[in-house]
Write a structure and sequence with these properties.
Layout: H1 5-12, E1 18-19, H2 25-35, E2 39-44, E3 47-53, H3 54-62, H4 73-76, H5 90-100, E4 104-109, E5 112-118, H6 119-142
Parallel strand pairs: 1-2
Antiparallel strand pairs: 2-3, 4-5
Length: about 140
């Protein structure tokens, strides 16, 4: 099992899909749909301003009957953003994500965005760890 965010990033990569605060919500939604992702990191230059997720679309745009083609991402994004560092322990990320009810955590090092960790990444890591344990136990039993 990976123990830090860096180990997850080494496996999945450090690419992060971003969007600027002036983009309209319709463009952001289309981009997320095209890429099959649930959120975008909102940035201006190197600065992480917020997160824009499927939940934001539902709770702030659709429920308010706003026109997604006229509303800006910067007006609807979630903030403040909870970030972590590459050396952050995964157990801490799990605790924070559960406590704050978030599914995306940007990874920042030296004030620069260098990756993102999601609840799906953490779940996949747990599944892999359990699968490895099962295989080891199976090998142990077979060696008797």
């Amino acid at each position: 099992m990976a123990s830090t965010v860096q180990e997850i990033l080494a496996r999945k990569g450090t690419d992060v899909v971003t969007i600027g605060p002036e983009a309209d919500v319709g463009t952001a939604a289309a981009r997320m749909n095209q890429l099959g992702i649930g959120g975008l990191v909102v940035v201006e230059g190197d600065e992480v301003l917020g997160l824009f997720t499927e939940r934001d679309i539902m709770t702030k745009v659709v429920s308010a009957c706003s026109d997604p083609c006229t509303v800006k991402v910067g007006e609807m994004m979630s903030r403040p953003v909870v970030c972590c560092k590459p050396d952050t322990p995964l157990e801490y990320c799990k605790m924070v994500m559960t406590d704050k009810r978030i599914r995306h955590m940007p990874v920042v090092q030296d004030e620069k965005l260098c990756g993102i960790v999601t609840s799906g990444d953490l779940l996949a890591d747990e599944v892999q760890d359990r699968q490895e344990t099962i295989e080891l136990l199976y090998q142990y039993i077979q060696s008797w």
